[in-house]
Amino acid sequence: MNVSDGSSYNFDQKERGIALLINNRNFKTTNDRKGDEIDQQNMIKLFGDLRFKTCSYEDQTADGMRGIATKIAQDSIHEDSDCFVCVVASHGREKQTKTDTHGPYLEREQEIMGVDGNEIRTSDFVGIFSDDKCKGLRGKPKFFFIQACRTAGVLKMDEGCPLRPLETLKLIQETHGNKFMNSGEEVPMVTMAPCPEDMLIMFASVSGNLAMRNPKDGSWMFQELYNCLEKNRKDLGKRNFLEILTYVLARLSKKETSAKQFLKQFSPGCFIHCLTKDVFMKEKV
Asked: Which of 184, 200, 213, 215 is spaced 20 to 30 Å from 36 by Cα?
């Protein structure tokens, strides 16, 4: 692949870009996220090694997360940057909302919890960096890595369905009481987070599932992301970034937990994207 033929994003800017890290660890209304400090340290090292300017924040409320994102989106550094990265690690869920747009459905969308127990919708958060709100990143790739559960109040894990990382734009059909509902009845319908142009959003689990985290070693997704990117760091200018992220998902799909309540069950991740070019992250000198 010729990385200078116009089919790839420009990674010859003065700066690599900002890597915004938000790690919510200590909560007022629910359990703390033990092991998150390992994720934070690994992500700071990883994106620092990739020559990003890391901006790390801990224990933010929902309004705090929104405010930080809004401030970062207005940073002038974006004008001279290759791209943008955002890592969010917190509790989360998928909220159900009734809609009559195409019949009696339940739309489900992920919300990320602040340490105060309040939540911000994933679509609202990533939308802060869309082209119309963040001019400096217009036409540049923006990557979001979200470690947060996507359950809707009932703990559930995927039981090992075949993983097709490149088909993540498809809607995932949910069941109700382990039975599919007939036409005309209320059917839960998953609505993936809207993905603006030139964005990629990677989730630690598929819809309706838990995002796994080990108190000693950190989150599964960040473990694999760190290992794969560090291993291939010198080759990011020659290997398409999406190829490596797909490999991260493949490794995630093979992980198992020894916890008795989830024995022999899997928690695969997924990503959605509206990138319009290939991504070859040239090494910065």
From this structure: 200
Contact 202, 221 (CB under 8 A): yes
Between 49 and 162, where is the model more confident?
A: 49
10-34 exposure pattern, b = at least 16 Cβ within 10 A, e = fewer: ebebebbbbbbbbbbbebeeeeebe
Alpha helices in the chain (DSSP H): 36-49, 62-73, 122-127, 220-231, 241-253
Look at residue 36 and give its three-state secondary structure: helix
DSSP annotation string for 202-221: EESS-TTS---EETTTEEHH
Cα–Cα distance for residue pair 123/24, rounded to 1 Å = 19
Tokens of 69: 């994102």
* Alpha carbon 176 to chain centroid, angstroms: 26
**pLDDT for the residue numbered 195:** 83
Region of residue 206 (left: phi > 0; alpha: psi -120 to 50; beta: else): beta
Rounded Cα gap, residues 200 and 203, in angstroms = 10
Q: What is the pLDDT of residue 172?
A: 26
Q: Give residue-wise pLDDT tens across range 77-94.
A: 999 999 999 999 999 887
- Amino acid residing at 22: I
pTM score: 0.82
**DSSP state letter for 25:** -
- The predicted pLDDT at position 247 comes to 93
* Domain 18-153+164-273: CATH class, spelled out: alpha beta
The amino acid sitting at 51 is R
The pLDDT score that the predictor gives to residue 208 is: 66
Q: Please, what is the Cα angle at 150 between 35 and 141, to 5 degrees?
A: 85
